[in-house]
Every structure is written in C-alpha cells, then in structure tokens.
C-alpha cells in the first residue's frame, strides 16, 4: 500500500486542528462489516478524499471517522484521544458532518436552518442566536446563498438544498469538516466552485467523492477502498495510476497533463473488458 505524508496547514480560526489516526478500524452497517483493517493518519489541515466503487464502504467509513457510528473494531483517535471518549456536544465542536441524505426541513427558513450549525456552542435549552447572524451570513454567502436568508427551505431547488446543508456545516466552524458526496446535485460550475472552497478552508476536510478526476487537483491525499479493505493511500497523482484504476474500478485510465494549466487529469477510456 502506498503511503505519503503532508506538512500541516495553518491553524484553524476556531480551535486547534487535531491529527486523526485510524488504528485497524472496521466499519459496519447494521452489524454487517463492509470495510476492515483501515489504518492511516490524517495530518492537521489535510484535504483527504475517500474513493471507491458503489458499496465499497466510503459513507460507512466516513460516518465511523466522524463518530456517528461506532467502529466494529479498532480505534479512531484525535490527537491520541479515542473519539468515543468525547461527549456528543464536544465532538460536534470538533467535527462537522454533512451527510448525502439529509435535506433542509421544509418548515424552516434558510437562515434558521443554517443557524442549527451553531447549536453545539449554545447553552443547554438556549434558543438565542445573538452574535451568530454574521456567521450564518458568511456561510451562506460562501455557497452563493447570501441573499436567501429568509427564503423558506421548501422553495429551494435540489442544488440549492445541497449547498444549504454544506453552509450549515461551514457555520458549525469546526476544525474538521467531513462531507459525504458533497458535489451531488450540483451543476458542473458549482461542483468546481465548491471544491475550490473546500480546498481553501483552514481546516481538515475529509470527503467521500465519486468524481475521481477532481481528486487529482483538489485533494492532498486519497484513500481507495476496494474489496472490503484500504487498497491504497497517498498523494492522488501517485496513487491513482493505471494499475490501481484497473484493479479498484475496472476501467482503463491514464493521467494526462492539461496543455494550458499543466494540471493532472484522468483520461478514462472505458471498462477493462471493452476492446
């Protein structure tokens, strides 16, 4: 398995960014283990992509790293402390998680929904949002929704709903941001804008991603899940080679350099059995 390290990024504006370490982690769904034996270290400020075919365990592993689901085996550590030792509120001040299934409640206005990301910082039973409006506006503006504060969530399009949920994750202002398929339901322009936005965050970002080509240019590290295990882990340009793409995704692919930007792209020609 290929491994590489990365220099830490600048500190988070809200809290120290922890090192995340997985030690022989197994992730499960309803008692069924879908991926096992995952050991890796994610340095502070790293942008990590989880990739794999459908059913490879990306979402399941992501939820386990976030502490939403307990590992079937092994440990997730934040700066050496077991994640399971953290109280839910404490964990929610460190890790923001944006799932692919959740959508904004129709009975809330957009600003109210994004403000839910501030709940971990409020006193128990407190409903006050004093001093938080600028955080909500900033998060919405980053996702192109800055002028929609009073818009009912029921009036949002599919792409706007997706951006709204990511805005809520940004409003949580955690040193670690985890996203499950963040580009789903977004048009190509917003996919690229979002990936640029995530890359600019002064935090650790861990995302399950389907579009492997974008991983080459927008992420520092990639973890490839295949056949129930971690197939490869390292820098995208070094990991996502012709052999790996054939083994893990059953496609013929090669990296090429853009003639103008000189950035790496994946050229995929089809399934391995297509001749």
TrEMBL record:
Ranges for domain ABC transporter: 20-252
Sorted UniProt keywords: ATP-binding, Hydrolase, Nucleotide-binding
SMART domains (UniProt xref): AAA (SM00382)
GO molecular function terms attached to this record: ATP binding; ATP hydrolysis activity
Source species, domain of life: Bacteria
InterPro entries: AAA+_ATPase (IPR003593), ABC_transporter-like_ATP-bd (IPR003439), ABC_transporter-like_CS (IPR017871), P-loop_NTPase (IPR027417)
Transmembrane stretches, start-end: none
UniProt KW NADP keyword: no
UniProt KW Transmembrane helix keyword: no
Known EC number: 3.6.1.3
PANTHER family on file: ABC TRANSPORTER ATP-BINDING PROTEIN, HEMIN IMPORT ATP-BINDING PROTEIN HMUV
Protein name (Swiss-Prot/TrEMBL): Adenosinetriphosphatase
